[in-house]
């Protein structure tokens, strides 16, 4: 298979693992992998077709990348944005000491931008109202059963995310086998039917882009924000109604848990870069205190 390549040198310190962490859906993610050789493998469905991208950061900061498949050139062209080059944090002011310390300690934290809505939408929908363990398991199984093998000389098990056509081909019993309930599968089926229109959200960006995503029944504020954070690096797309985010931000900034109203109030001074604050706190390892048993893991396959 023909191989394309490019070298690119960012004008900032690059920590690829931190930048790409929002894209990784668990340790066994079949579409994003960091190997022992310091290389990162990323697959995706592009406007030109599926493709595989692999890159490594050299000692001098240069990024050496190769790609295969019909979408190889698109992935290579998007490499800088994927690694945060399009992110603009100018004008950001830390209004809390915790955020200021995080900013000093994480100068390499930047917001990724894949330029692709569909590949971010599927796992986001799978994560609605379930534990991450459940969602990541369903994501792995859908990629394994309905995603194509990644093109190129790739590590074993690397897959392309399921295409809209593949999602529409899944029968009810196969959804059940993957542990996806009726509500989430219905959302994915509707989204698959208009997937080509949803990609326009990347060009619209901001609230207009998120509003386009929310036009799909079953895609609310939380899901639209999760997609926007990844597809175009939306620095203001906060995942309201998230199980963890209000507590993480609340305990880190004001010492108590918050609801969505309180979260919006605390983050208001940071607009239009509220999500950047959340990323700083998450990257620093802040988490909600655990006062009770973990949220139970359900297995829809047994129902």
Describe the structure.
With 303 residues, this protein is an alpha+beta fold. Among the domains are: 4-83; 118-148 and 156-231, Hypothetical protein, domain 2 (Endonuclease III, domain 1, Orthogonal Bundle), CATH 1.10.340. The chain is 42% helix and 10% strand. It has 16 helices and 5 strands. A 5-stranded antiparallel β-sheet has the order 1-5-4-3-2. Strand 3 and strand 4 form a beta hairpin. Helix 12 crosses helix 13. The longest helix is centred in the middle third of the chain and has 15 residues, at 132-146. The protein starts with a strand and ends in a 20-residue tail after the last helix. The model has no long low-confidence stretch (mean pLDDT 95). GO terms for molecular function: alkylated DNA binding; DNA-3-methyladenine glycosylase activity; DNA-7-methylguanine glycosylase activity. InterPro entries: Alkylbase_DNA_Glycosylase/TA, DNA_glycosylase. One of its GO terms (cellular component) is cytoplasm. This is 3-methyladenine DNA glycosylase/8-oxoguanine DNA glycosylase. Keywords: DNA damage, DNA repair.
